[in-house]
Amino acid sequence: MNAEITFHLFLVVISTGLVKGTCPSTCSCSSDSSGSNVNCYSKNLGYIPDLPSDTFYIDLRYNSITEIDVQFCKEMPKLKTLLISNNQISEIPVNTFVDCELLQTIYLHNNKISAIEPFTFMNLHNLRYLYLYNNEISAIESFAFMNLPNLQYLYVYNNKIRSLESNTFINMTNLYYLNLSGNNISHIEENAFGNLTSLSTLQLASNPLNCDCSIYPFWSWLIERAAIGTSAKCSDGKFVISLRSAALEQCNPDTCHCFNGGKCVTMANGLAVCDCIGEWTGELCQESQCISHDCGFGNCYIEPMNGTAQCVCDDTYINYCPERDLDMTSSN
Questions:
Q1: What's 319's DSSP letter?
Q2: Is 174 within 8 Å of 153 (Cβ atoms)?
Q3: Are 280 and 306 in contact (CB under 8 A)?
Q4: What would the pLDDT profile of 198-213 be if each residue is shown by its tens digit?
Q5: pLDDT score, position 321
Q6: Best exposed site among 31, 48, 232, 283 by fewest CB in 10 Å?
Q7: What digits encode the pLDDT tens for the residues 243-287?
Q8: Mean pLDDT for all residues in the chain
Q9: Domain ranges of the chain
């Protein structure tokens, strides 16, 4: 009887180990009703070890981990807190955080991450804190941060980001604080920030923002949201919100009106200008080239290939038509 009881206990222990996994030998673990709390802080790890499947808290800070080769929540569906800062990680695979329904906090700062790909942080419905500062991020792709309805604090400062593309930050309705200071951001595309209805602070200090017409979409977005506190400055030191509306209205395509068949186009720097056709020129296509082009006694003609004014004298195209000989004209 005792042998039978011992055998059943052995099976229970074995099966529990198979379900929950084991604590890595170099780490320390504790368990309670929530699951396993795993502490691998500063254990000289070069990779992410196998972890108990019921892990809800994992501390992997201050190691030498170079890559993320696990889908954390596929292997640990109870995971709520992931601390993996101060390592040597250079990229985040797009599927890293798939099915992370309970994840609330992610520490990824002080690594060597170079870019954030589309859909890297998407549909993390309980995520509240995300730390990505002090990396080497030079590019954040569109849709990198998407549908994070409970995210409140996002730290991406002290990186190398050059620009913010359209649809970079979307549907984060509870985002309260966003820190992008200390990057190399010179250009912010239209709709880079979408549906951030709770945003209170947008830190953009120490970024060389280009305040030509390309700043217009971001400027108008800020003006419409006066409650947002921001430190955004132009490269010349002026605060973005201090730019005069009259000076920027020429950048607004809605205020661009062209005459005589001209069309409004937006230049590379964001300036809205008129593209004139035929003889028409000037800022609004209201000036005829023929008015200022002296053809003498000939007629003005607009060359269709390059749009320049020429003169027509007796079916001949020349630069100027001299006065005809009056004697020859009268004799006829």
A1: S
A2: no
A3: no
A4: 999 999 999 999 988 7
A5: 65
A6: 283
A7: 876 666 666 666 666 777 777 777 766 667 788 877 777 777 877
A8: 84
A9: 23-248, 252-284, 293-332
DSSP letter assigned to residue 51 = -
| Cα dist from 248 to 182, 185, 188, 226, 238, whole Å | 26, 20, 16, 18, 14
**Is 298 within 8 Å of 311 (Cβ atoms)?**
yes
Task: Look up residue 60 and give its two tokens.
Answer: 């992997």
Q: Which residue has the tokens 């955080």?
A: 97
Listing from the earlier edge strand, what are the strands of the sheet with 299-302? 299-302, 309-313, 316-318
* Residues pairing with 194 in the sheet: 170
What is the DSSP code (8-state) at residue 121? Answer: E
What CATH number should be reported for the domain whose range is 23-248?
A: 3.80.10.10
Residue in this structure with the two tokens 């040597």, named with its chain if needed:
88
Residue 25 reports pLDDT greater than 60: yes
Buried b (16+ CB within 10 A) or exposed e, 167-176: bbbbbbeebe
What is the pLDDT at residue 278?
73
Identify which of 96, 156, 102, 153 has the alpha carbon closest to the alpha carbon of residue 129: 153
Between β-strands 263-266 and 272-275, what pairing exists: parallel, antiparallel or unpaired? antiparallel
- Bridge partners for 140 per DSSP: 116
